[in-house]
Design a protein that fits this description.
The chain is about 35% helix and about 20% strand. With about 240 residues, it is α+β, with helices and mostly antiparallel strands. Strands 5-4-3-2-1-6 form a six-stranded mixed sheet.
């Protein structure tokens, strides 16, 4: 058995164990670093993949809503590629939203614009309205609301056909006095147990038709990716 050199220091005597300890720490740190890098990479990849999938689903949902208003048989362009930004107080739009042009062989046949009825029973009612070149309504669809289930929510097409009574209406075939619910002497059905909700929608839809008539040329002249604002054309 070899005797320990009494002249060696403690550090020299324990050199090998110390190196082994630091080596172990270094390996652990390296392993953790690699794990963190791999985990971060997987998270980033998942986020990118998920974001793409969500974007595709949103695009698909938008396309379905648009085609529900202007079917493929009436246009041959991709309306999502004909979108532009619109902001107009007359439409209840305080923030920019998207409008879409439907074209047949390059010529515009309908415009789908967003609008908001700010005075629903429980809050704003967000909609899309399609209007053709003659100023007739192609369709109105509610896209977001907080109306009472079982009562006001019948404005959804999935719940009833109430919203279809706007189809074919225009400022020419429906007088100003007729743009009211029947309870108030107008042409439009109210919902059982709910008058405020349909009243708000009828009022907003007529405003949209008036807005379209006043600005049809400018609305159709706005190119994809550009912005339309009623303030830019002198509206208060």
């Amino acid at each position: 058995m070899t005797a320990t050199d009494p002249h060696q220091t403690d550090a020299q005597q324990t050199n090998e164990p110390v190196e082994t300890m630091w080596s172990s720490i270094a390996k652990s740190v390296t392993g953790l670093a690699l794990f963190a890098i791999i985990t971060a990479g997987l998270i980033a990849l998942t986020q990118v993949t998920t974001a793409d999938r969500i974007e595709q689903q949103v695009r698909k949902a938008k396309a379905k809503a648009l085609l529900d208003i202007v079917p493929l048989s009436e246009h041959n362009n991709d309306m999502l590629n004909e979108a532009y930004s619109i902001q107009a107080s007359e439409l209840g739009l305080e923030e920019p939203e998207q409008a879409f042009v439907a074209r047949q062989d390059g010529l515009p046949v309908s415009l789908i614009i967003p609008l908001v009825a700010p005075d629903g029973y429980t809050g704003p009612i967000r909609m899309l309205i399609g209007i053709d070149m003659a100023g007739q309504i192609k369709g109105v669809r509610v896209v977001e609301h907080k109306e009472t289930p079982g009562l006001g929510d019948k404005i959804e097409l999935q719940k009833s056909d109430w919203i279809r009574q706007f189809d074919g209406r225009s400022l020419d075939n429906t007088s100003r006095d007729q743009w009211k619910v029947k309870k108030e002497g107008g042409e439009f059905d109210q919902l059982t147990g709910a008058t405020i909700t349909p009243r708000a929608i009828v009022r907003a839809v007529r405003k949209a038709l008036v807005f379209y008539r006043q600005h049809q040329s400018a609305l159709l002249a706005t190119k994809p990716g550009e912005s339309f604002s009623d303030k830019a054309i002198g509206n208060p």
